[in-house]
Structure to design on (108 residues):
């Protein structure tokens, strides 16, 4: 039964790595831009919007729809970057077991 004990230790170590990765994911931030940098926004790890910067030239009357579209585009940009960074963290933590379809393991 030595092998079972070693397997349990490996599983516990992996659980710890995954917990650490999840904590790091919550701290991640990603910036998205659109309109050639006229709109910038920042998302935190859980997807919460932290900041929006809008170029003052977009504050003219009649630009509301353009601003709204640029905010949506910048959010999409930031979300893609955040998702990619989180996937990297989880894949590094899960190691060779990532994506194998094992219960409780991340699928990438």
């Amino acid at each position: 039964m030595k092998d079972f004990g070693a397997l349990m230790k490996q599983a516990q170590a992996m659980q710890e790595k995954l917990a650490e990765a999840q904590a790091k994911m919550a701290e991640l931030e990603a910036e998205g831009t659109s309109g050639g940098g006229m709109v910038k926004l920042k998302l935190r790890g859980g997807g919460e919007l932290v900041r929006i910067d809008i170029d003052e030239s977009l504050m003219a009357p009649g630009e509301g729809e353009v601003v709204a579209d640029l905010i949506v585009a910048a959010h999409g940009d930031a979300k893609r970057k955040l998702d990619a960074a989180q996937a990297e963290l989880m894949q590094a933590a899960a190691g060779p077991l990532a994506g194998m379809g094992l219960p409780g393991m991340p699928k990438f």
